[in-house]
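Before the break, one more example. Copy the sequence into your notebook; we will annotate it together after we see the structure.
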Amino acid sequence: MTGLSRINFEAFSGKFDFSGYQTLCDVGGATGLLCIEVAKQHAHLRCTSFDPPPVEPIARRHIAEAGFSDRIQTAGGDFFRDPLPKADVITMGMILHDWNLEKKMHLIRAAYDALPAGGALVAIEAIIDDARRENVLGLLMSLNMLIEFGDAFDYSAADFRQWCAEAGFQRFDSIHLAGPSSAVVAYKQARRIY
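Here is what the structure looks like once it is written out:
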């Protein structure tokens, strides 16, 4: 997964506008790779790699080897039982496609709750084109997830927008990364002051 994800995380780090944000939490962070790639390009950001407690020592080791222990921390928990760490940007790299719709919605709502007004949820996957005709790898990945897990599936940017709108997000974007992969972004609207 690290090998497959590196090029997308590097591209995301360069293409997403982090200028208005101070903190990032990568949900399902594994070795901390996404946080490391973002930290390399954005010295002002503080990052958290969130995964079950047994994964934390692995992430801490990789983060230390990359020289970012001062700016990247780890947090342990179960993202279906525990609240997500609060952050300005919450990322999920190849996470949402692992689950059925009910669990996808749980994760999206958990991200919404953990984000401040103006915060962003980012999902990085082989996003299927809305017409479901062009991203063959995304379609095959969806079939693979269905076979492996029984009810997991990949999705289109339109699907992501619909689910995130149901959770309360109000603005959306899509950023092509590399090959068949993209980042879909949902922004939690800033509160208006009257």
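Strands lie at 23-27, 46-51, 72-76, 89-93, 120-125, 171-176, 182-187. The first strand starts at residue 23 and ends at 27. Try to locate both features in your own notes.
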